[in-house]
Amino acid sequence: MDSKEQVIGVLGGMGPLATASFFTKLVEATEVKKDQDHFRVIVDSNAKIPDRTQAILYGGESPVAKMIETAHNLERAGATVLVMPCITAHYFHEEIAEQVSVPFYHVLKGLSDYLDSHYSQVKKIGVLSTTATKESNLFQRFIENKEVIFPDASVQESHVMEAIYGDNGVKRGNRGAHPKKLLKAAADKLIEDKGCELIIGGCTEVELALDSKDISVPFLDPMQVAAHVMTRQEADMYSRY
After folding, report:
1. 81 forms bridges with which residues in the sheet?
2. Any catalytic annotation for residue 196?
3. Which of 39, 57, 129, 213 could be disulfide-bonded to 133 (CB atoms 3.0-4.6 Å)?
C-alpha cells in the first residue's frame, strides 16, 4: 500500500486533551508541501470509555467493550491502521487487537525500538506514569535492554498522580504551573536520587505539562515517537506490533 493511502484511526478520548495533542503531533510530523499531502486521520474521541486506572487497580468497570466498539467504529469509517494515545490503555491492547482486522500499533513496542536505535547508550530510564501503568509492569514488559525506574510510592501518589488526576491536574484541564511543578520534582528525584539518564512521559497527560527544557536529561514523549512512526511507515509494517 502507498503510505499516502494510509488512513490513521485514533482510538481516543483517554483523555481528550491527550487525543487532541496526538492529532497535532501527527500533523506536524508529516512531511508535506500542501494540505493534500497529509494523511487522512479519523479520530473517535470516546471520553465515555471507563477509567483504565480504576479498572486495573480497583476493580472498576472494564473499558474493553467500549474500546472494542470504538475500534470497530474506526474500522467502519475506513481506518487502515489504529493507534491509541493512552499508555495505561495498552494494558488491554491485546484484547482489542484480537477483535480488529487492521494493524493496531503498539506504542510501547515502538518506543522500545526507538530507544534501541536512538538511545542505545542509556541504561537507566525514569518513567512518570499512572500507578496502574507502574503496577501492571507495562514498561518493564516491553522496554528491552534498559533498567526501568519509577518514583517511590509516596512521590508517585503525591506528585505524579496528583499532577494527572488531582483537583488542579491535567485531567481537570490544567496544564499550568501546578502539574508542571509536581512532575518536575518527581523527575528531578529520579535523576538525582536514582541516576536516571532519560525521563519518559509514561502517561499521555504528562507531556501536556512537562517539557524537555524543564529537566536536565532528555525527556521522551512516546506519542511523539508514535506520530513519527505512523507518518513514515506503510500500514503492513505495523503487523509486528
Report:
1. 8
2. no
3. 129
